[in-house]
Write a structure and sequence with these properties.
The structure holds two protein chains of two kinds.
Chain A lengths: L1 H54 L4 H12 L26 H8 L2 H34 L3 H15 L2 H15 L6 H9 L2 H10 L4 H9 L4 H12 L1 H16 L3 H6 L8 H4 L8 H33 L5
Chain B lengths: L5 H23 L1 H10 L12 H8 L1 H33 L5 H13 L2 H12 L4 H8 L13 H26 L3 H9 L4 H28 L3 H8 L10 H10 L3 H33 L2
The chains are: A mainly alpha, B mainly alpha.
Chain lengths: ~325, ~290
């Protein structure tokens, strides 16, 4: 009886302790497992990018001996000495910048295509964000049934895939006589409603009392817009710019339909049409094409994440 | 919020004007023309033919194949995109060391242009490629992945690679919005981890879950980029997608077919977006603070 009692009074303590130890151990195992999985995923997610980057520093002969089996099989000429199997390699035998040198000095073609990308994407990013900021300000300042309906139309257009929106874009470009020119891609890009949607969400988070106070102090609409709203939305402006940039830096569909002229096409379409003898060069060009996007990502990751979070859910 | 004055409304209209005109001119107004094209036999004779153009599109074997392939791809890719990105978000939630580094890694593919990565995909999935090399060493006969029944699987992998990060961020935001006190209280009350997930987390996640599903569906229509850059204008027939069909129709300048197809796809998307709005409206009330 006394023994049982003693055990009973002692038992809860040890049980609690044991539980705590077990919980701690379970937690450690769980975190270790999660970290392990994250590691596996990280390798998969990074591998293609890292490989492309690493391969851009290989000599043409190393590329040919590694990947010749994939890219040279269409050659009709005499047999080349190439590896039977592909050899994916992370570290070059000899690090060389020759591919970059060739790109910059001897192959103006790629630089031209890169430039084509720049002059298509830059105006789209700048003007889409600027026009959208104005529109978002309007959606924030006055609300009403018509405004809400209009915002609904914007969201609708935003969610439509290219398979649908390219048809109206094409018809308008055709009747404006800009088909085949850069305008046929830049103009629909400038007016695409994506930024309006995100920026409206951002601006509607500005406390209304702030605007009321500015009005009482006699500030005009332009002053409120440029001196209060824009600075307060700096984050969402930047995140929208990043999202728009990456979307158009990647463009394929519009170009194929609106601008079949290869001379004007951006690198995003052209890179896949690389000649078989220039695979090493292609890796260098591919890396050059990644650089602006990657830099934006590294410098603006927090903004990017903010922008993505804003895009979640359709309500303001 | 108080009512806006008339003058304010007018000024506000001016700010909206550039965007409004652009959206109307390039996206909305041409639809009147598209509807007209879809209902006549040809733009010159202008004979009203009712829904004949729509029937023609539905009977068109290329359209059917394209729609079928696109649907098949989306059905495979979307659930995986939702489930795996939720998994990634929850892995990062588990307070692992270097959480923000991993987040960066998982998000990075979305910033890498498809065109830059295509070469590596080719090296991996080609007949003479790395994947077959590995498989051959364990005795599997090599075959051309992009021209096989597995071509869809490859495209799904590329799609997931690119899109999981974006979805993951959305889920991470949703997970961080779940009140910690609620989860702790449930844990103290002895609710198992599984129960806490289904009864608390899942309910808070449902709106995001739905949004990510629709977003992934819309993104799945963009996978044409990967397919085009990997296989060009004429892919293996399993990879012939709706965008390929539209490209070919543009090339033949068949405005009737083009318009009817655009309307069909537009209506289909409108249906999905409508569902999104309705369900979001219902769920939104449920979990709002």
């Amino acid at each position: 009886m006394t023994g049982e009692l003693a055990r009973k009074t002692k038992a809860p303590l040890t049980l609690a302790e044991r539980r705590a130890v077990r919980a701690r151990r379970r937690r450690a195992i769980r975190i270790a497992l999660a970290a392990l999985w994250c590691g596996v995923f990280a390798v998969v997610f990074l591998m293609p990018t890292v490989l492309t980057f690493a391969n851009s520093f290989m000599t043409e002969s190393e590329i040919t001996s590694n990947y010749g089996a994939v890219f040279e099989k269409n050659d009709q000429g005499g047999k080349k000495f190439i590896a039977e199997r592909v050899n994916l390699k992370l570290i070059p035998d000899k690090v060389t910048f020759s591919q970059y040198a060739t790109t910059f000095l001897k192959s103006p073609d790629y630089l031209l295509k890169f430039w084509n990308s720049v002059i298509l994407v830059l105006p789209i990013v700048v003007f889409q964000v600027a026009i959208a900021a104005l529109a978002a300000y309007s959606f924030m300042r006055t609300r009403g049934r018509i405004k809400e309906l209009l915002l609904f139309v914007y969201i609708f257009v935003m969610l439509m895939p290219y398979q649908v929106t390219l048809v109206p874009n094409y018809l308008v470009a055709d009747s404006l006589g800009i088909l085949g020119t850069r305008w046929s891609i830049v103009l629909p890009g400038v007016f695409a409603p994506f930024s309006v949607f995100i920026l409206t969400k951002g601006m509607r988070r500005i406390p209304y009392s702030l605007i009321e106070a500015a009005k009482l102090d006699g500030a005009g609409e332009w002053h409120i817009f440029s001196k209060i709203c824009l600075p307060m939305c700096k984050g969402s402006l930047f995140s929208v710019a990043i999202l728009v940039f990456i979307d158009y830096w990647n463009m394929v569909e519009q170009v194929l339909i609106m601008m079949p002229d290869a001379d004007k096409q951006p690198l995003s379409v052209f890179l896949s049409q690389i000649n078989t003898g220039e695979i090493g060069l292609a890796f260098a060009v591919a890396t050059i094409y990644m650089v602006p996007a990657i830099l934006l990502f590294l410098y603006g990751e927090e903004y990017l994440i903010e922008g993505i979070t804003y895009s979640g859910g359709l309500k303001g | 919020m108080r009512e806006s004055t008339r003058a304010e409304k007018l000024i506000s209209m001016c700010y909206l004007l550039p965007s409004f005109v652009g959206v109307m001119v390039f996206f909305v107004a041409p639809f009147a023309q598209i509807i007209r094209y879809a209902l006549v036999d040809n733009p010159i004779a202008n004979n009203f033919v009712g829904i004949e153009n729509f029937i023609k599109v539905f009977e068109n074997s290329a359209f059917r194949r394209a729609a079928g392939n696109t649907a098949r791809f989306s059905v495979m890719a979307v659930p995986l995109a939702v489930a795996l990105s939720l998994l990634l978000a929850m892995l990062l939630e588990a307070q692992i060391p270097g959480k923000s580094k991993f987040r960066t890694f998982f998000l990075s593919p979305m910033m890498v242009p498809v065109a830059s990565i295509v070469l590596i995909w080719q090296v991996i999935f080609d007949y003479n490629g790395a994947l077959n090399g590995v498989l051959a060493s364990i005795g599997v006969t090599p075959f051309d992945w992009m021209k096989s029944d597995y071509s869809h699987v490859i495209i799904v992998v590329l799609f997931l690679w690119k899109n999981l990060g974006y979805n993951m961020i959305l889920f991470m935001a949703a997970l961080s919005n779940i009140p910690k006190a609620l989860l702790e209280a449930a844990a103290v009350d002895g609710a198992s981890a599984l129960r806490r997930f289904w009864q608390i987390k899942f309910r808070f996640l449902t709106p995001t879950l739905l949004f990510v599903t629709i977003l992934s569906l819309i993104n799945s229509f963009k996978v044409f980029r990967e397919v085009y850059l990997l296989t060009g204008d004429y892919p293996y027939e399993d990879l012939y997608l709706l965008q390929h069909f539209m490209n070919n129709t543009f090339k033949s300048l068949d405005y009737q077919k083009l318009s009817a197809a655009a309307i069909i796809m537009g209506l289909f998307m409108a249906l999905i977006i409508g569902i999104l709005f309705i369900v979001e409206g219902r769920l939104g009330k449920d979990v709002e603070q």
